[in-house]
Amino acid sequence: MPSDGAEYTIGGVKILFPCKAYPSQLAMMNAIVKGLNNRQHCLLESPTGSGKSLALLCSALSWQKALYEKSVPASSCDKEDRKAEPSPPCHCKCHCQPKSNEASASGTHSAPCSANCPDTGTSRKPGSPLTNTECKENETLASKLSAKKKLSLHASENDDFQVDRKRIRPLETEQQVRKRQCFAKGVQLVDALEVYHQRKNGELTVHSEKSMKTATFSPQTPPDPCTECSCSSGKEPDKKKKENGDRLCVPKIFFGTRTHKQITQISRELKRTAYSCVPMTILSSRDYTCIHPVVSNSSNRNEMCVELLEGKHGKSCSYYHGVHKLSEQHALQPPPGLCQAWDIEDLVSLGRKLRACPYFAARELMVGADIVFCPYNYLLDPQIRDSMDINLKDQVVILDEAHNIEDCARESVSYGVTERQLRAAREELDFMVNNNIRQKHHEPLRAVCCSLINWLQESSGQLVERAYETACKVWSGKEMLNFLYQMGITGITFPILQKHLVAVLEKEEKVSMHGREELIEVPVVSPAAQIVLKGLFMVLACLFKENSRFADDYRVALQQTYTWMTEDQRDDSDTSSFFTRPKHKKSSRQKTLVHMLNFWCLNPAVAFSDLNEVRTIVLTSGTLSPMDSFSSELGVKFSIQLEANHVIRNSQVWVGTVGAGPSGRKLCATFQHAETFEFQDEVGALLLSVCQTLGQGILCFLPSYKVRKSELLFFPSNHTPLKMHC
After folding, report:
1. For 598-624, what is each residue's pLDDT tens digit?
2. pLDDT bracket for residue 412 (50, 70, 90)
3. 457 in a domain, yes or no?
4. Which is more confidently placed, 362 or 133?
5. Number of separate domains in the chain
6. Most buried by CB count within 10 Å: which residue of 67, 450, 521, 550?
7. Residues in domain Helicase ATP-binding (predicted)?
8. What pLDDT, on a 0 to 100 scale, did the predictor assign at position 710?
């Protein structure tokens, strides 16, 4: 902390501040600590430039640190070690015996009774206590990743493709490539994937029209469950429990901002504090973190990334396989590693150097992070939360610059799908059902798509023309529930449909072979079809939630428009994960009718209803008033509300109008005068005069980029710093 830093004790929490705090910052920190201690939500308004971000970071991280100190005895490890007490040495067979590569990759224990420490390489006797240094390394995410990777990496120096089997599918074998090519030629999946159906004497037989080949599994006997320690339940012992009762569970802090760019500003503020070395991570999209030379230059990074990870075309992503290298570098190494608060650009730069994927490394680091930064739609959107494995139960959520949080919340629980996308999803589900692949799960989902398509066709006759080549019809949420009821989708049947969806998305399935259970890979629908199904089920879950409490908050709109499509675009939309239809190399464009089904959410409280199990929500901005209406729209009770004053005193503010410039010309900014050189010269001379008088940085707002360009041409570049905004 800088020498001019200050220390404050608020609500029993010692807060280290990098400078003397403004009164508004003290008021904010007091409100935040009070809310965190009492599990209350906070709505805090403080003007722009009053240091909100610094107050948020210091108060929240100080409170978290104090909670760590309460949850671990002072005689144990340092603060870094207080996150979890080291469990007593385990002497069971499953931990003391050497592990195979598969066991090492899938195990959840750090093998405390092995002869060598997996991270340091130093020898110690079995059962001997860990030192502070060893404890620190064993508690980091990197050490866990290192322990899991050690045995699989030592056999080859080129470890890009030596991956954990539970995280990455193996690359396609030559036989799998041939099977995939069969699908492209129209061979039915039931003929090419007998691997899923025929199980005889431990062998899976694959038939095709021209040849017959056999692929034999060599099942391994799973180890007997351990009966000598807590691992017999299949889970790690809870390291945050006292011997005589429940221990304080230290929550993570999820810090949401409006954009990725604002995360850069927050990380810069974090570097100024005494908490700059706190374990952290930044969740962001592939648009900002993908470093694959092909995928990063693609317009559809998400789908290309998924295809590489699944190895559909016999290729994989070496950057993803090197995630552990970036995690270890981040957690264990001094500079040029990221030992202090870092930014997305720092992570990407290090990822390029180590040839490791920053996108998945950031997600891995979330496991051991105390504070997680992300755009706040990552926290509000149910689908993003699910894909990122974000669990907000009993956690702390801070949303900075939350003045437009209502719009983000409404968009996160709204969804739109075209009739073409529905038909493509139905075709893939047809393919699964006809080839007897998880038929009992795919068939109900196909029925949902068929019902929606039939309803779209019937309702298209009711559309009302609204504009040129545009027609629309809008129903209320309750009217849509009646239509869904006629389709057989009700509050009783929908949970069953959700279970079917979960089942069809599982890429592996347990089968019995020789009395043992083995995992085999099962085909699933394409990523595009998964997006359609997940989006539909997300919005249907909102409609049926809490006995259709939010049905009136939705409007369902069927829109009809026309768009120009090329032939290859029309064909691309109909592709699936199993067969590829030939593309027509036609450059002609055709006018195509498009039906779009939209589920519009009008109430942001729908999204915030998913956050009812969050410990504390802190919303801050410079413009939140009126507080009562803002709180009622979100449907959240903010017990602590604050409207802080600005750090600038009234005596420092002058508000007035300037009617003439230095030469006496009137400043009339109407359209006729704003285009003249006389007006522009007079405004430029006025700005120059102000800069010469004040001698400090100046912020100037102009009505348009055109006016801004004119003034910048006039203003000398070697003068007082001047920042212009439109």
Report:
1. 999 999 999 999 999 999 999 999 888
2. very high
3. yes
4. 362
5. 2
6. 550
7. 11-449
8. 60
Other C-beta atoms closer than 10 Å to the C-beta of 456 total 18
pLDDT above 70: residue 212: no
Q: What is the pLDDT of residues 522-562, one digit of tens each?
A: 888 988 899 999 999 999 999 999 999 999 999 999 999 98
Query: Is 420 a member of any domain?
Result: yes
Residue closest to 365 by CA, chosen among 397, 320, 388, 331: 331
Q: At 264, which amino acid appears?
A: T
For residues 592 and 443, membership in a common domain is answered with yes
Residue 707 confidence (pLDDT): 65
Write the secondary structure of 513-575 as one string of H (helix), E (strand) and C (coil).
ECCEEEEEECCCCCHHHHHHHHHHHHHHHHHHHHHHCCHHHEEEEEEEEEEEEEHHHHHHCCC
132 pLDDT more than 70: no
Domain membership of residue 691 as a residue range: 671-724
709 inside domain: yes
**In 3-state terms, what secondary structure has residue 261?**
helix
With contact defined as beta carbons under 8 Å apart, do 366 and 401 qualify?
Answer: no
| 595 in the same domain as 468 | yes
Same domain, 596 and 678: no
How far is CA 280 from its chain centroid? Answer: 15
User: Which single residue is written with the structure tokens 């989708």?
Assistant: 489
- Cα dist from 465 to 460, 469, 470, 558, whole Å: 11, 8, 6, 12
Whether residue 264 contacts residue 343, with contact meaning beta carbons closer than 8 Å, is answered with yes
Express each pLDDT in 61-90 by its tens digit.
999 999 998 875 543 434 444 444 344 445
Count the neighbouring beta carbons within 10 Å of the beta carbon of residue 282: 27
Mean pLDDT of 624-631: 87
Whether residue 707 is found in the same domain as residue 595: no
Q: How far is the C-alpha of 551 from the C-alpha of 579, rounded, in Å?
A: 39
What would you report as the CA-atom Rg of the chain, rounded to the nearest whole angstrom?
Answer: 30
Kindly state whether residues 553 and 427 are assigned to the same domain: yes
* Same domain assignment for residues 541 and 689: no
Q: How far is CA 589 from CA 303, 569, 586, in A?
A: 25, 10, 8
- Phi and psi angles of residue 667, each rounded to the nearest 5 degrees, phi first: -100, 90
The more confidently predicted of residues 611 and 151 is: 611
Q: Are 206 and 174 in contact (CB under 8 A)?
A: no
Give the domain-ending residue among 602, 628, 652: 602
Evaluate whether 647 touches 19 at the Cβ level (below 8 Å): no
Amino acid, single-letter form, for residue 133? T
